[in-house]
Amino acid sequence: MVYEAPEYHPAFEEYCETIYELTEDGLDVKQARIADRLSVSRPAVSEMIRKMEREGLVKTSDSGDITLSDDGMVLAQQVVRRHRLAERFLTDMLDLSWAEAHHEAGKWEHVISPVVEEALARVLGNPTTCPHGNPIPGSDYQGPQNALTLGEVAVGESFVVQRIPEELEFEPGLLEYLEEVGVTPGQTGSVMALAPDGTTTVQVDGRPFGIGPFAGERIVVTAA
């Protein structure tokens, strides 16, 4: 499926993508959260949201919650789909690291045409997720049953990694670390210990390492 939204300034695309991803991660979308995600000032976000409301891309509630309109959702799904297809191509075909692919896909998402989008999906075999396990809009993605977070897995229990939420992709060095230690979709591991500070010691491929509480509360897994 190809989403074809009217052409908008890349800044509108970036904001719609951010709102979509925050919602996907189960977070309330507030101006402060957008500012943190995009590393821009609160006044800049406030001005952009006003412009987007005039364009009919977002709606703001009395409590300050921001949601995408129908037009905003189409634009967001278009950008997210192209970003995640680009990440898949860059990792699967060009062997770039997760972090490199995420950075480069942020550029590609604004210039990929519908024709190239279709070609990417075809060449990649119509993938349903990005390399981090996040669903590609318009694909036949089916979410895992009985999903939980890594932090909810009991000591001694095994798990299968399902998804690294977008929120973690913006933590400096975290993507590189997770890829290096093998916390990747489809990988099986086990929980060895839980420290008082919330750090979870896990073992993957015979190697023990620690996962901090911020990541542990967000990495989506299923019981092995």
Describe the overall structure.
This protein has 224 residues and is of the alpha+beta class. Helix 1 crosses helix 2 and helix 2 packs across helix 3. 34% of the residues are buried. The longest helix has 23 residues, at 70-92. The protein has helices at residues 10-24, 31-38, 42-54, 70-92, 98-108, 114-123, 166-169, 174-181, 213-216; strands at residues 58-60, 66-68, 148-149, 158-163, 188-194, 200-204, 207-211, 220-223. 43% of the residues lie in helices and 16% in strands. The strands form 2 sheets. The protein has a 6-stranded antiparallel beta sheet. Strands 1-2 form a two-stranded antiparallel sheet.
Provide a count of the helices.
9
Main sheet summary: 6 strands, antiparallel
Main structural class:
alpha+beta
Averaged pLDDT, please?
Answer: 94
Q: How many strand units? A: 8
For the record, give the distance between the C-alpha atoms at the N and C termini, rounded to a whole number: 32 Å
Q: Walk across the major sheet and give the strand order.
A: 3-8-4-5-6-7
The oligomeric state is single chain
Shape: globular
Low-confidence stretches: none
State the order of secondary-structure elements, H for helix, E for strand: HHHEEHHHEEHHEEEHE
Work out the strand percent: 15-25%
Helix content: 40-55%
Tell me the Rg in angstroms.
18 Å
